[in-house]
Write a structure and sequence with these properties.
Layout: H1 10-13, H2 23-33, H3 37-43, E1 45-51, E2 58-65, E3 72-73, E4 76-77, H4 85-89, H5 92-95, H6 100-105, H7 121-151, E5 157-159, H8 166-170, H9 174-190, H10 197-207
Antiparallel strand pairs: 1-2, 2-5, 3-4
Helix pairs in contact: 2-10, 3-10
Length: 221
C-alpha cells in the first residue's frame, strides 16, 4: 500500500511534535488566508521550544506553529496549499531514505500513516527529488529566519531542569511525560520578556523578499 495521509491529526496536535516555520512559510500563509503577520502570531505562530540533540530537558527557541495547530478544520489541514515546508517534508524525508525492510518494521503507534506502506524504487526516487528541492528552499529561508532571531537575541536556550516542577514531571514516563516537559518549556518561553516579534518578522519578510519562495514544488503523490 502506498503512502496516503490518514488525517489522524497526530503530526498536527502532539505537543512533542514541534513544527518550525520560516519567514517564507509565514509570508505564504499570510497571503493564503488573507491575514496580516500580527494576526498569525496571535492565533497560529509563536516562539517555540525545539529539543537540542534529542534532549527532553534542554531546548532552543525558534519560530514554530502553536500546537495543536490552529490551521485545521476538524482533523484536516485548512491551509494545505500554504502549509509550512516542514509539514510538506513529512513523511517524505523518511520515505526517501528508509528501505522496505525498515518500513515493514516501523511500528510507532503515533504515526499510523507510516505503517503497512510498500514503496517502489521509482516512488522512492520521486520522493527523494521532492525532498531535495524542498531542502534547498528550507536551507535558504531558515538561514534568513535564524539571522533575524539571532539579531534580536531570540535564539535562546531553555533548560527546564531549573524549574521547580521538573522533579514531579520527570517522575512520569513515556510520551505523556515528554508532552508535559514540552508544555513546561512553552510556559517558560512565554514567561520571558519578548520584543514585538510580529513587527520584527513582518519587516524581515520585506527585507528578505527575494530570498523567500513564492511557489513550492507540488506534492509528489
Amino acid at each position: 500500500m502506498p503512502f496516503s495521509c490518514l488525517h489522524c491529526g497526530a503530526c498536527c496536535e502532539l505537543p512533542e511534535t514541534q513544527i518550525a516555520v520560516t519567514l517564507g512559510d509565514i509570508r505564504r500563509l499570510s497571503r493564503h488566508i488573507g491575514k496580516p503577520v500580527a494576526e498569525l502570531f496571535r492565533e497560529r505562530i509563536g516562539l517555540r521550544p525545539f529539543a537540542v540533540d534529542g534532549s527532553c530537558t534542554v531546548f532552543k527557541t525558534g519560530l514554530g506553529l502553536r500546537i495543536p495547530c490552529a490551521s485545521r478544520e476538524g482533523r484536516r489541514c485548512a491551509v494545505y496549499p500554504a502549509r509550512p515546508l516542514n509539514c510538506r517534508l513529512f513523511p517524505f524525508h523518511l520515505l526517501a531514505r528508509m528501505s522496505q525492510e525498515e518500513l515493514d518494521a516501523f511500528d510507532d503507534p503515533a504515526v499510523r500513516c507510516m505503517q503497512g506502506i510498500s514503496i517502489s524504487a521509482e516512488e522512492r526516487g520521486k520522493y527523494r527529488r521532492y525532498v531535495e528541492r524542498l531542502a534547498d528552499i528550507l536551507a535558504r529561508e531558515q538561514a534568513a529566519t535564524e539571522a533575524l532571531l539571532k539579531e534580536h537575541g531570540l535564539l535562546r536556550t531553555v533548560d527546564i531542569t531549573t524549574h521547580e516542577d521538573i522533579s514531579r514531571l520527570c517522575a512520569g514516563s513515556g510520551r505523556e511525560r515528554d508532552r508535559e516537559l514540552v508544555r513546561l518549556a512553552v510556559r517558560m518561553i512565554e514567561g520571558q520578556p519578548l520584543p514585538d516579534l510580529p513587527s520584527l518578522v513582518a519587516e524581515a519578510i520585506r527585507r528578505h523578499a527575494k530570498t523567500l519562495a513564492d511557489t513550492l514544488p507540488p506534492n509528489p503523490i
